[in-house]
Amino acid sequence: MAASSVLFDNHGRPLEYVRLAVTDRCNLRCFYCMPEEGIKYMPKQQLLTYEEMERLVGLMAGLGVRKVRLTGGEPFVRRDLVPFMARLADIPGIDDISLTTNGVLTAPYVPELARIGVKAVNLSLDTLDQERFARITRRDELPRVMDTFHALLAADIQVKINAVVMDGQNTQDIIPLAELTRDLPVEVRFIEEMPFNGGSHTATPATLPWHHRRIREHLEEHFGALVPLTGAAGATASEYAVAGHVGRIGIIAAYSRTFCGTCNRIRLTAEGGLKTCLYDQGVLDVRALLRGGSSDADIVAALTSAFKYRAANGFEAEQQRPLHQLSFESMSTIGG
């Protein structure tokens, strides 16, 4: 199906980008994402098959989606991921395939990622200190993550490091991580901590200890004034140049939600739930349509209808959730 003109939601925002979770499973146990004992994973038969995901991406491409980012869980814990990505790249209208990974299993696949034209990889990395890494992730895997980091750079794949800033946990890592941009063509992005940890979270955007303004102030105390850059349409990060640095720095106000007005992304969870906002409870069971015999036209109609009732921002989406039990979800089930 050839791509059509861009589809807009009810607030006039284009929908060009889908984040596709291929699994809810993960080989790390980051405390801000899930409890130490992990989460109850979905039975395999409840996950979308690769064929079902290909069908959906093809239909979305016909609605104007052009970018697909593979997420999880950790995408590489699912077998045959790279051949699946290659098939997605061949779908007419899809011109940008990217990936978010924790890097533990990724390094051996980097040459294949480069071959199929993966444009960018977001690498989740909250610290460069091996002891803190093991404490945060509950796994001692930093050397393997750094192998992936260097392999991606060697393959000329754009690397963005995603670091969640957590009070009392890794704030001492902000400057060392940012220093990577001095000599390397990477973007290091600092993310406000969000409540998707499978447990409780009492902070609000107003009381979050390390909000986006404080992160910037801390960086400027060390590097001097950050120079704002013009980001891509729909970007979540405020991007900055640092004098004398090859790379750049990004700050994502994920909990303050300052970027909602330009959001151009939708999410598909591993079990086929459509989320038009990270903070909503899911607005459409696509798996039921796929397995219930719905035609392509039926599915397109259902998707188009869902996009017409999109929340204006993350706060509105959160308010619409039953009992507002947002904090009991895990990012592993949401899809990054």
Give the rounded overall mean pLDDT.
89
Number of domains: 1
Structural class determined from secondary elements: alpha/beta
Strand order of the largest sheet: 9-10-11-8-7-6-5-4-3-12-13-14
CATH superfamily: Aldolase class I
Number of helices: 11
Q: What's the story with the biggest beta sheet?
A: 12 strands, mixed
Number of DSSP-assigned strands = 14
InterPro entries: Aldolase_TIM (IPR013785), Elp3/MiaA/NifB-like_rSAM (IPR006638), MoaA (IPR013483), MoaA-like (IPR040064), MoaA_NifB_PqqE_Fe-S-bd_CS (IPR000385), MoaA_twitch (IPR010505), MoCo_biosynth_MoaA/MoaC (IPR050105), rSAM (IPR007197)
GO biological process, one term: Mo-molybdopterin cofactor biosynthetic process
GO molecular function, one term: metal ion binding
Binding site for [4Fe-4S] cluster 1: 26, 30, 33
Structure description:
The structure is a single chain. The chain has 336 residues and is an alpha/beta fold. The protein has one domain (7-334): TIM Barrel. Helices cover 29% and strands 18% of the residues. It has eleven helices and 14 strands. It has a twelve-stranded mixed β-sheet. It has a two-stranded antiparallel ribbon with strand order 1-2. Strand 1 and strand 2 form a beta hairpin. It is globular.
Question: Which short descriptors sum up this protein?
Answer:
11 helices, alpha/beta, twelve-stranded mixed sheet, 336 residues, TIM Barrel, two-stranded antiparallel ribbon
Summarize this, please?
This protein is 29% helix and 18% strand. It has 336 residues and is an alpha/beta fold. It has one domain (7-334): Alpha-Beta Barrel (TIM Barrel).
